[in-house]
Amino acid sequence: MSDKRLLLGDEAVALGALHAGLSGVYAYPGTPSTEITEFIQQSPLARERGVRSRWCTNEKTAMEAALGMSYAGKRALVCMKHVGMNVCADAFINAAVTGVKGGLVVLAADDPSMHSSQNEQDSRFYGKFAMVPILEPSSQQEAFDMVAEAFRLSEHFRLPVLMRLVTRLAHSRAAVAVGEPQAQNALAPDDERTRWVLLPGNAKRQYASLIAQQPAIAACAEDSPHNRLDPSGTGELGVIAAGIAYNYVREVLPADVSVLKVSQYPLPARQVRQLAERCGRLLVVEDGQPFVEEQVRALLDADYPVQGRLSGELPRTGELTPDCVAAALGVGGARPFAKAEHLAPRPPQLCQGCGHRDVYTALNRVAAEFPGARIFGDIGCYTLGALPPFRAIDSCVDMGASITMAKGAADAGLRPAIAVIGDSTFTHSGMTGLLDAVNDRSAITVVISDNLTTAMTGGQDSAGTHKYEAICLALGVEREHLHVVVPLPKNMDEITRILREEIAYEGVSVIIPQRECMQTLGRKLRQKKQAK
Amino acid sequence: MNRIDIKLCGVGGQGILSIATVLGEAATLAGLQLKQAEVHGMSQRGGDVQSDLRLSTEPVWSDLIPLGGAGLIVSMEPMEALRYLPYLSPDGVVVTASHPFVNIPDYPEEPALLAELDALPHTVRLDIEAVARENGLPKSANMVLLGMAAPYIGLLSAEQLREAIARVFARKGEAVVQANLQAFDLGLSHSLKTVSK
Questions:
Q1: Are residues A284 and A403 in the same domain?
Q2: What is the pLDDT of residues B165-186, one digit of tens each?
Q3: A196 and A268 share one domain
Q4: What is the mean predicted confidence (pLDDT) over A507-525?
C-alpha cells in the first residue's frame, strides 16, 4: 500500500526514520532541523512503538545517547542544525572509530545564507573528516527513502551515516509516497569490547579497520543509484549537481548539457572522470561550501576547466537560487520589475510583552552608569537585544560563550563584565563555563533570562526548567549572590538595584529573571480553551 | 503545461502559513504537483515572512520561485507586497491587503506606497482587516485575502478552495469553518467586481 502525504523535508526524514524501524531520536532544537524531532514527538506510530523522543540538553549528549542505543542493537537518529555538529564532533568522530551496532544516522541541517545561523559551515566536511558515508537528498521523496537506505548502510558498514539537508529542503513541502513501516530491531547489545574500549591499543586497530573499509565505502557510492550520470548532452558543458542543486539545474537545464547527479559520498570519482571525458568543461553546482568542486579539481588535470563557487561562476557565499544557477548556465530569464522604491527593511524583533525586553531595559539603565560596561550575549531570541531599540549586547558567538567570554574579559581586568544567556542555552553549554568562573572567582555578573522554554525554535521544553537555582548553587554560586526576579516593568527598581549591587561584587553573581515566554503562554491558554 | 508560482508574504504572525496550508490542501485534492518553501525560525518574530508556492500539472523542480516568475503575489501587508516585486512575472497580479502594519520607525509614507502599488499593471487591494472586522470575522482576514486571490490562481476553482478551507479548519469546529468560508466569499466577490469593471 502506498499513500501520498504532503511533508516538509524535515517531516519526510522523520517519517522515513519511523518507517525504517527507529527506536529513538536524540536532538537539541535548532533551525532548520527542529521539525524532525517534533514530528516524531507527535507521531501516533512513534507513540505506539514507544520511540524515545524527548529533547536532549545538547547535541553531544544526544549523539552519545544515540550511540548507546546503537550499541544496544537498535536504530537511532540524531538531528541537529549544522553548528550542532561542532558541539558533538568529539562523539561523532569517535563513533566512526568504535563503529556502531544498530543503525546510527546523524542528520545535519545546514543553513546556507544564514537565515537563522551565525555561519555557513558545510556538514559534508564532517562526514569526510570522520570517513563515513554521506547522503544528501535533493527532494522530499529522496529524504524519505534515503533514511531507510542510511540505516541499511550504517548496519552494513557498521558505521554512523551522515545525512545532510539544507534549509530549502528542510522547510519546503512536497508530496511524498509512503509505504508500510518495517519492524524495529530487537535488543541485542554488542559484546565486542575491543571495539568499544578506545584505549590506544584498541583504537589503533579500530582506526586501521576504518581505513581498510574506505575502498568498499567508495565503491558503494560509485555504484549507488543516488549518483546518476545522464550523458545525453551533446554540448561541451557538463554539470555536477549535488543534493538540492539538482533541482535548480533541472529547472533551467539546456537540452545539450550532460548532468551527474550526486547524492551519496565519497564523491563517485569514476563517474566524474567519465563526465569530464565527454565534455570540455565542468560546472559544479552545490549548496554550501565548495566541497565537491575542490575534490573535482583534485581529480582532473590541472588545466581542465572546472567552474563553480571557487571560480566565480556561482556566488562564493549564500544559498543557491534558480536565478544564480540559470546565470551560471547562461540561460538567465527576463526580470520585468526592478526593486520597489517605497520599501524598508523589517527585521525580526522581540515580541511585545516579552520578559527579555524588561531584562534589557534594566541592563541598559544600569550599564549606562558604568562607562566601561560590556554585555556579552548568547544565542536565542534575546540575541535580538543587539538590534534597536535596545542595542544592548556587545557579543554573540556560540552557545554558552556569554559566560566564558565575560569571564575571560573580567580576567583581563574589564569591569563590569556582564553575561546574558537564556535558560535553554545555559543548560546546553553555559553550566561548565559558570563552574570555571566560580573556581576562578571571576568578577562577572551572569543574567540567566529564563522564559521556561526554548523559545527561538518555537517553544520546545527546556532541559533545566525549575532547576536553575539548584544548578547554580550546586556549581558553587554563593546563596547571597544568587537572585530570582520577575522581569516586569513594575519590578524595574528592584531589578536595577540588584544589578547595581552585584556588579559591585568582585566575584560571581547570578541573577535569574524568570517569566514565561509570551508565545508559549499564549499557546497553553489557547489549548486550555480548546479542551473546554 | 499548466503552472502558477505564488509568492505569499506578510509580517510574522499575520497568518500566511494558513493560506499556504489551504492552497496546499486544495492542490493535493486536485491532483496537482506542488512545492511550498516556508520560513521558520528567527525571522517569524515581527519580521518579514514569505513562502514560495509552486503549483503545476507537471513535476516541479526548484523549491524556490525564480525572479520574474511569480504569476501572483499575495500579501497580508502592502509594503511586503512591494518587497517581492522583482519576482513578479510581466503579466503577474498583485493581491494585497491595503492597511499598513507599522512596527518599524522608517515605514514609507502610506499614499506614496499605495500609489506605487496602483501603478503596477495588475493590482487588487482591499483593507481586509476592516472588511473582516465589519463582518464580525476578526480572525479571518487572511481568508478574505485568499478569496481575493482565487480568480487569479487558474489551476484551482473557488469551489476547490472552499472545500480545502472546510477540511483544513474542520478540527477547530463548524463555526470557525463557516467564518472562514464567509471571509473567503467576501474577498472573492471583491475581486470579481474589480475584474468586471
A1: no
A2: 999 999 999 999 999 999 999 9
A3: no
A4: 95
Taking only residues 95 to 134 of chain B, the set having a beta carbon closer than 8 angstroms to any beta carbon of chain A reads: 103-109, 112-113, 116, 120
State the pTM of this model.
0.96
- Min distance B42 CA to chain A CA atoms (Å): 6
**Of the residues A177, A194, A222, which one is the last residue of a structural domain?**
A222
B116–A342 CB contact, under 8 Å: yes
Find the domain containing A315 and state its range.
228-328
State the DSSP string of A135-193.
E--SSHHHHHHHHHHHHHHHHHHTS-EEEEEEHHHHTEEEEEEE-PPPPPPPP-----H
Tens digit of each residue's pLDDT (9 = 90 or more) over A396-407: 999 999 999 999
A342/B82 CB distance under 8 A: yes
Check CB contact under 8 Å for B40 and A34: yes
Nearest Cβ partner for B64 among A31, A321, A381:
A321
pLDDT of A82 higher than 80: yes
Report the residue of B25, B36, B45 to disrupt the A interface, i.e. the one with the largest count of A CBs within 10 Å.
Answer: B45
Please tell me whether the interface predicted TM-score (ipTM) of this complex is above 0.90: yes
A114 shares a domain with A244: no
Inform me whether the pLDDT recorded for A334 exceeds 80. Answer: no
- pLDDT-above-70 percentage for chain A: 99
Give pLDDT, residue B139. Answer: 93
A531 within some domain = no
Grid coordinates of A306: 572546472
* Same-domain check for residues A135 and A56: yes
Burial class (CB in 10 A: 0-12, 13-18, 19+), A432: exposed
What CATH superfamily classification does B3-102+120-196 receive? Pyruvate-ferredoxin oxidoreductase, PFOR, domain III (3.40.920.10)
Return the pLDDT at A1.
44
Mean of pLDDT values over A257-274:
97
Q: String of b and e for A252-289 (b: at least 16 CB within 10 Å)?
A: bbeeebbbbbbbbbbbbbebbebbbeebeebbbbbbbb
The residue of B63, B65, B85 whose CB has the most chain A CBs within 10 angstroms, and thus the best one to mutate to test that interface, is: B63
